[in-house]
Specification:
The chain has about 350 residues and is α/β, with parallel strands linked by helices. About 55% of the residues lie in helices and about 15% in strands. The relative contact order is 0.06.
Length: about 350
């Protein structure tokens, strides 16, 4: 073979020397190639394909130089196996003209990076080896970049999934707030009906020519109190904190139950009389003072009485009953209307 010379350009892979494996069944060739490349690379040698494969299982080899003609397994056959198990390793095949067809077939199958005809020129072989290491570095870098890209893509997908989940949660929360807002607005519209009727009724009385002068002051006070209650009702029902929580806070206070009922009756009696319905009361004689949210209970009773008047016929009677029962106060509204269908009572 031709005289060997040393390579001059060191090959560095990510801060470490390249790993070069030389496979040949002739020891003199192994020694010569080892001398040529040992300055620039970590050189491993093997006299057979099996020995070379064992080295690759233990050491990360970057470039392989193998002779084509070896006993047992040829270089192209060895590279075919290496391609599947170590796809990144660059493969260089030393061959003579007699084996050129096998080499071409190996090239077509992608089993070798380059082939070198015997006898080779040492400087040309050194250049080919440098190219092989450069190609390995490029392949390794591309693989790292691909891994980083896949990781970045996975992270991006995770963030998109997280943001999508947060957006879905925000949309669901918004939907709930809209539903709660609609419920509260519906409550406000319903609960305002009775005080509006009260104001309308007493303003009609003020305009009536038979209204006595001493009654006018009482009517105006009732109208003022009702309007004040309406404003409080609106502020409470449209309070954004209440809408977000879906709850209305109760403000309990000590209440004189008889005076409280007298006010409720005073506000609602006129509504019933306009429809020809008499509002009567049944009160326990020894009703105690009791702690509850005066405004909310008044809303409840106003709604019950309003519905009783709405679904009762003229000439009938609506009864507001108040009883002391086991340390509690029981309010009952009784009318002579059509009542609630039996199949709908479960919805109360």
């Amino acid at each position: 073979m031709s005289e060997l010379i040393e390579t001059t350009a060191p090959e560095m892979l990510y801060g470490r020397r390249g790993q070069l494996l030389i496979v040949d069944d002739e020891r003199e060739i192994l020694k010569s190639l080892r001398r040529q490349f040992r300055r620039d690379y970590d050189v491993y040698t093997a006299e057979s394909a099996d020995e070379a494969y064992s080295i690759m299982l233990q050491t990360p080899i970057h470039v392989i130089i193998s002779d084509q003609r070896m006993p047992g397994v040829s270089g192209s056959e060895f590279f075919s196996r290496v391609k599947d198990d170590f796809p990144d390793a660059m493969r260089l095949l030393l061959t003579g003209y007699a084996d050129i067809q096998a080499v071409i077939s190996a090239c077509n199958d992608g089993n070798i990076f380059r082939y070198v005809l015997k006898p080779w020129d040492p400087s040309e072989l050194a250049s080919i080896v440098r190219d092989a290491f450069s190609r390995y570095m490029l392949t390794a870098q591309n693989r790292v970049l691909l891994t980083e890209l896949q990781e970045a893509n996975a992270l991006l997908e995770a963030r998109v999934t997280e943001r999508t989940s947060l957006l879905e949660q925000a949309n669901e929360r918004l939907r709930q707030l809209v539903e709660q807002r609609d419920i509260f607005i519906g409550m406000a519209a319903h609960d305002l009906r009775t005080p509006i009727q009260v104001v309308q009724g007493f303003t009609d009385l003020l305009l009536h020519t038979r209204t006595r002068p001493e009654e006018i002051r009482d009517f105006v006070i009732i109208i003022q109190e009702t309007l004040r209650d309406m404003l409080t009702l609106l502020n409470n029902l449209l309070d954004i904190t209440a809408i977000e929580s879906g709850k209305i806070l109760l403000h309990k206070a000590d209440v004189n139950v008889r005076e409280f009922i007298a006010r409720v009756v005073k506000l609602n009696r006129l509504i019933g009389e306009k429809k020809g319905i008499h509002l009567r009361t049944e009160l326990d004689p020894d009703l105690p003072r009791f702690s509850f949210d005066r405004q909310r209970i008044e809303q409840v009773l106003n709604n019950l009485l309003s519905n009783a008047f709405k679904f009762s016929h003229s000439g009938t009677e609506v009864t507001l009953r108040v009883q002391k029962l086991d340390g509690e106060i029981l309010f009952t509204v009784i009318d002579q209307g059509i009542g609630i269908r039996a199949d709908e009572t479960s919805r109360l």
